Amino acid sequence: MDAIILQILNGLDKGSAYALIALGLTLIFGTLGVVNFAHGALFMIGAFCAVTFSRLLQLSHEIVDETRTDFLGNPLKVDVPYLQDWFGPETGAAIIDWAVPLSILFAIPVMLLVGFVMERGLIKHFYKRPHADQILVTFGLAIVLGEIIKANYGANPIPTPAPAAFSGSLDFGVWLGFDENAIIYPYWRLIYFLFSAVIIAGVFAFLQFTTFGMVVRAGMADRETVGLLGIDIDKRFTIMFGLAAAVAGLAGAMYTPILSPNYNMGMDFLVLSFVVVVVGGMGSLPGAVLAGFLLGILQSFASMNEVKSLLPGIDQIIIYLVAIAILLTRPRGLMGRRGVMEE
Amino acid sequence: MLGLDTKDTRLLIIVAIMVMAAPILLNPFPADSAMAQFNAGYPDLMQRFVIFGIFAIGFNILFGLTGYLSFGHAAFLGMGSYAAVWMFKLLSYNVVPAILLSVIVAAAFSVVIGYISLRRSGIYFSILTLAFAQMSYALAYSVLTPITNGETGLQVYTNDPQILMGENSPNVPHLFGIEMRGTADLELGAWTFTFGNGYYLAALMMLLSFYISLRIFRSPFGLMLRAVKSNQNRLTFTGVSPKPYTLAAFVISGMYAGLAGGLLAAMDPLTGAERMQWTASGEVVLMTILGGAGTLIGPVLGAGLIKYLENIFSKINDGILHQWFAFMPDGLEDFMVTILHPFIGKGWHLTLGLIFMAIVIFLPGGLVEGGQRIGRLFKRRKTDDASSATTKPAE
Amino acid sequence: MGILEVKGVNKRFGGLQALGDVNLSVAENTVHAIIGPNGAGKSTLLNVLVGKLIPDSGSVMFDGNSVLGRQPYEINQMGISRVFQTPEIFADLSVIENVMIPCFAKRDGAFRMHAIESVGNEKNIREQAEAMLDDVNMLDKRNMIASVMSRGDKRRLEMAMCLVQEPRLLLLDEPTAGMARADTNNTIDLLKEIKEKRDITMAIIEHDMHVVFSLADRITVLAQGTPLVEDTPEKIKGHPKVKEAYLGEAAH
């Protein structure tokens, strides 16, 4: 029992990331009718927003500490972050320690900007082109974005730790009456899950309760009719794209303590998120979220040692197997609607 | 000739001559001149031209004719390579069984993967093929290590059985004794031309592949494939079942990929999982659209161009750039080098991505369409000249 | 006994009775029109006839064989060709290729791996296609790409693609819907011409009464999913029930 709960918990954070990316993918599908192969790259850029922000916070200048000496006996040179100059040593260090959560503030404007530029500069011209062209051009863009990041940050993963306060784990099992250390759940993963839940709820609330969201939902259901109403749907769609980019970016930024970002991570997550979207049902927002969590949890079950010893390598391919099975038995996915993205 | 009409025969002959004479044609610069770095006429590179040409020709039969965009064809190439290396390990270094098995294995897998993926069309199909390819990659990389040798990659070891290996059999891939890496040099004044055995084997295979694809394009079967792309609804209401046609196209293109994989291994008897990665699948898509999807010669041109650019761009470094721009004032020279630096050497993939985008945005029909546009432009200009030169009114 | 026999077909969508006890018989070598106001169940009936929808009960027999649950290509191979509301043609292919494809389908069936033969050597097929194009006065356009033609020519081409298969039943789905008056008249003329030139059985589903009066041998009027009357055009014209159905709609 405790093992099962543990696996469900372990699947939640990965599932959260899948759900957030798939949510954005679905929004873009549904509203703009565009298949965005560069969405994983947005997740990756978000992660590198966190890296950049944490580096910005650590910008330092060198001072000579007369009281200490290095191993040669010379006065020790130490780097002091400007933040410590401005806010005092302790507050400064705390801010640096909290770089990842604080990077949200940095990631939101950056990602919105990236999204707007992408939509206005490129995607807009592909609304009327075949899906194959959309796939190809965004695929090319994904390569370009990945390579730009690689050129500037190198090819190796960059560890980006969570604040020290969250570095420990929660002994979740004790709450439920299990033995100590039976169910250990790192604080940051819990935070990530809660964070995702808030964002998902926010996106749904935004679509449900604002006029803007209403128009977007109407546009998803029937684009032409909404266009006929004389509503400037294009502008809203630009904003929608920016929003989807921001969601993916935040998902990436907060994910950095769980997975050290590298330039390739976008591609890995993209393929899986596409599978998630397909399983959830193309064009269905709740389907995307549901499938994201389901597949995350499934993947975590598949990586249990008991399962792996029975079916070696199942953790690597379980998601694909499920996707293939779903597509063959329920071609529209778990919650897909008729006529979405069908020729 | 060969069941082709005059125009196609001419095309085939031109391609055959170009391919056969490639070691000379692609070596226009004398060996010790500064321009020699732009030569492409050495076996190693030319092999890649023709092998990826085969890959792209096959991909074009699926994507160019039926419009089904597969994002997983590198998986078949990878399987072909693994099959070929296994033949080397078990039988001998003779390339014939290796190439045969690579095609058979790719065919078998493409029947299964194609059958499932083709239950859906459009982007679903692309995602399904992508999922299959990623799955194959993941399996090859980790789980199937006994078969694929995982991260290290599969290669031939001295303690492998090689049961058909005779006393005097060469210890490298060969075709009944003709070693693949064997070459003959021809020195002609300042020029050196190298003729590789491996290149000529691969080139003959490519010509055969090209000929088969030509026949398919001109056949009723090919017409049906183009009808699938054009209007599947009408096709079904015309009494044709599109599925067997698309599956046949999928399997044929899978076999082409397998052949390419087998030939890659025949040139260099080792392989790894990275050949199956989806970036590799993306590359063949790029080759095809760069040349011109649905055209006969486009994929070959696209494959050659991409592999040539890859070779050049990867070779160039800052030092070479400095040489090129040495005629400029220092500041400008440094500026140019700094600007170009991200695109060369390790930056090749960045350039590749940009080419990809540029082609899709500006020239979706690829080079062949671009050539036709230019051709039309000249033609129009000519007729304009002709009509302005003549004062006689048209009849 | 007609070539197409629809017996007791019912279809419900949730609470809506889309088709209620539809009986219909199309006799060979006649033009049978099925008309009715919007929402009368015409397109549901059509979808049943082409195998897209399976009715809750009843049977649809074509020449003694059931068409229910069959794939469109099987239905075509049985001898039913279909003309769509907006012409469905192979837009990127040349006109002659458009007509050769149905010829191949007729000769080779739903699938044949004829990958080594050359289209250029298929003299019979080409002659057949050219004769058909000549018949509809399009021979001079044979090498044009289909997409660049006028809408009228596309309709003509689609008709040629269906007729070249010598179907035993030609199914027309609102062939003049959304057309300007002139185009509508052209289409009517084309259909009349076809009817005069050859023995053919046609079933036309149509919204506009005027279109079918000059064409049809028999007319079935559908209202609220049920056949109201079936008779010759002359008798239908003055039929009180028909007036009611159409006037009722006009009064809305």
Verbal overview:
The complex is a heterotrimer of chains A (343), B (395) and C (252). Helices cover 68% and strands 7% of the residues of chain A. Chain A is mainly alpha-helical. Chain A has one domain: ABC transporter involved in vitamin B12 uptake, BtuC, CATH 1.10.3470. The longest helix of chain A is centred in the first third of the chain and has 31 residues, at 2-32. Chain B is mainly alpha-helical and 395 residues long. Chain B has 17 helices and six strands. In chain B, the strands form three sheets. A two-stranded antiparallel sheet of chain B has the order 1-6. Chain B has a two-stranded antiparallel sheet with strand order 2-3. Chain B has a two-stranded antiparallel ribbon with strand order 4-5. Chain C has 252 residues and is an alpha/beta fold. Chain C has two domains: 1-79 and 167-252, P-loop containing nucleotide triphosphate hydrolases (Rossmann fold, 3-Layer(aba) Sandwich), CATH 3.40.50; 91-166, no CATH class. Helix content of chain C is 37%, strand content 24%. Chain C is built from nine helices and ten strands. Chain C has a six-stranded mixed beta sheet with strand order 6-7-8-3-9-10, with helices on both faces. In chain C, helix 3 packs parallel to helix 5. In chain C, 43% of the residues are buried. Chains in contact: A-B, B-C. Chain A binds chain B through residues 35, 122, 125, 129, 131-133, 135-137, 139-144, 146-148, 151, 267, 271, 274-275, 278, 282, 312-313, 316-317, 320-321, 323-324, 327-328, 331, 341-343, and chain B through 67, 69, 71, 116, 119-124, 126-128, 130-132, 134-135, 138-139, 142-144, 232, 278-279, 282, 285-286, 289, 342, 347, 349-350, 352-357, 360-361, 364.
